[in-house]
Design goal:
The chain is α+β, with helices and mostly antiparallel strands. The chain has one domain: Alkaline Phosphatase, subunit A (3-Layer(aba) Sandwich), CATH 3.40.720.10. Helices cover 32% and strands 13% of the residues. The protein has eleven helices and 13 strands. Helix 3 packs across helix 5 and helix 4 packs parallel to helix 6.
């Protein structure tokens, strides 16, 4: 599982970044284009390990304990080896606007996204047009993205070493490999002399503490809107690769909506395991996820899912083609109005259909509340009240 990696960042999902090992796994395996995470590292990892929605696992927010059941350090700075950074230095002087267009074209050609889904606009509130920057600013932003690309490149190199060792041991034929990201690209702002460490080194060096912020996160999440933390598609969509030759047809692309909660039941089934009902006389919650083995085998074309998200007041539910989603506005302390999107026609979430479908809105709100109750969500307003 990669940390804070955007949907379009692997080469086999449309990126310009050199990821030959991930690309090989994809060519010999399966790319899942609608794999969803839980919007942030801690909740996603809780769901990965349990097959439950994160609230049921006690990680409704992060690892902090708020004293309520649903609520008990990623490598964030941009650090990479000089030789890896050098491979990408200068390649991002084209800017985020052109990079997003280039990735969008490759993704549609690959069949990763539907050509009818539009490229979302640049996140204009925080991200200026590239051509408005001066030369020094362009150099600074080019370096930040070069370091980010170098990190992905080095990750891919190390994955290659693991694959080589598996082959050397003769265990590659007895291994399923999955690759995902824990959330969408990370927009969060960290500058030199930032809020965490008093460092002022050149971006990428050990004595620096920088991030690529909204500017490049917007490109990482091509073609989607919003970022890590929110539950619009840009925050919850993971690139997903699954390699398992004895079950998966090479080079297949699957569009089934699946969720991080589905990984544990999949592994249990493939391992021939039985998920226990009790442990040391304590009842264990049954998994909410669904085994993906039929999807891997391409034996379940009528795959139907109702999926739920909530993270720090950002809420969504997806039922088949329809998705209902809302943000929590920290500035106003209120929820934004519910938005309704058709995921078949508009996964970029640009055409809000809420005004035209009041009955569907009410149906989806009722569904959200029903699943939130089963998933043991404590509303964010209640969490904030308790925190005070």
């Amino acid at each position: 599982m990669a940390d804070d990696m955007g949907y379009s960042d692997p080469g086999c999902f449309g990126s310009e970044i050199h990821t030959p090992n991930l690309d090989k796994l994809a060519a010999e395996g399966l790319r899942m284009t609608q794999f969803y995470n839980a919007g942030r590292c801690c909740p996603t990892k809780a769901s990965l390990l349990t097959g439950l929605y994160q609230h049921q696992a006690g990680i409704g927010d992060m690892e902090r304990n708020y004293g309520i059941p649903a609520y008990t350090a990623p490598h964030w700075p941009l650090h990479a080896l000089p030789e890896d950074i050098e491979k990408y230095r200068g390649k991002y002087m084209i800017g985020w606007d052109s990079l997003r267009v280039d990735r969008y074209k490759r993704m549609t050609k690959m069949g990763i996204i539907n050509k009818n889904w539009q490229l979302s606009p640049r996140h204009e509130e925080q991200v200026p047009a590239w051509n408005t920057l001066d030369a020094e600013e362009k150099e600074m932003w080019d370096l930040r993205m070069a370091v980010y690309a170098a990190m992905i490149d080095r990750m891919d190199q190390e994955i290659g070493k693991i694959l080589g060792k598996l082959s050397e041991m003769g265990e590659d034929k007895n291994t399923i490999i999955t690759f995902i990201s824990d959330n969408g690209g990370c927009h969060e702002r960290i500058k030199n002399l930032g809020n965490y460490l008093p460092t002022s080194g050149i971006t990428g060096n050990p004595d620096s503490f920088d991030a690529y912020e909204y500017n490049w996160a917007n490109a990482s999440n091509t073609p989607f809107r919003w970022f890590k933390h929110w539950v619009h598609e840009g925050g919850i969509s993971s690139p997903c690769i699954v390699w398992y030759p004895q079950l998966i047809e090479a080079g297949r692309v699957d569009n089934s909506p699946v969720h991080i909660i589905d990984i544990m039941p999949t592994f249990v089934e493939l391992a021939g395991g039985i998920y226990p009902e009790t442990f040391h006389d304590h009842a264990i919650k049954p998994m909410m996820g669904k085994s993906l083995v039929p999807v891997f085998a391409d034996e379940n074309p009528e795959w139907k899912r109702i999926l739920f998200w909530e993270h720090e007041g950002n809420r969504a539910v997806r039922n088949g083609d329809w998705k209902l989603v809302s943000r929590y506005d920290n500035a106003t302390g209120s929820f934004t109005p519910w938005e309704l999107y058709n995921m078949i026609n508009d996964r970029s979430e640009l055409n809000d259909l809420s005004d035209k479908n009041p009955e569907k809105i009410m149906e989806m709100i009722e569904l959200y509340n029903e699943i939130a109750n089963v998933a043991e969500e404590t509303t964010w307003t209640e969490v904030l009240r308790i925190r005070k």
